[in-house]
Write a structure and sequence with these properties.
The protein is α+β, with helices and mostly antiparallel strands and 144 residues long. The protein is built from two helices and eight strands. 31% of the residues are buried.
Length: 144
């Protein structure tokens, strides 16, 4: 199965309309990239724009897509729930507009037990609109 063929509901613990990634387009053990088209009908969108909390959640869900893909490749059907443990050095240059497509890339800086420190970048057509460091803690709790 091609990486882009996965239904995000199979990789993420979130369910619509709370899913803020459309496709996983790149994966290696240290890096993942997702695409998401901003839509008014999703959480964290109002007045034709995605709110800052939506960008944070999009980054976290890119981390979850990476982990979910790893679990699927290991033939594990249980999707673990992750929590944002820390956000540092968050910089947002502008809010995405409805209809714009986010390309979100996360790079794992360090994995220690069930905690990952990542660096994230969100782009729209090559323009970097957000960056941050984020710590994600993977729980022992399975989604649904």
């Amino acid at each position: 199965m091609n990486i882009t063929d996965f239904d995000m509901a199979d990789l993420l613990p979130q369910r619509p309309p709370f899913i803020l990634v459309d496709r996983l387009i790149y994966y290696d053990p240290r890096k993942a990239t997702t695409l998401f088209t901003v839509r008014e009908d999703r959480f964290f969108c109002s007045g034709g724009r995605m709110q800052e909390a939506g960008l944070i959640e999009n980054i976290a869900q890119t981390c979850a897509a990476r982990t979910g893909y790893e679990q699927k490749m290991a033939s594990c059907d249980d999707i673990k729930i992750g929590l944002i443990g820390m956000i540092k050095k968050m910089e947002i240059s502008r809010s995405p507009r409805a209809g714009e497509q986010l390309e979100t890339t996360i790079v794992v800086v360090e994995d220690v037990f069930s905690t990952s420190l990542i660096e994230a970048k969100v782009e729209i057509e090559g323009e970097v609109i957000a960056t941050c460091e984020m710590k994600i803690v993977l729980t022992d709790v399975n989604a649904g």
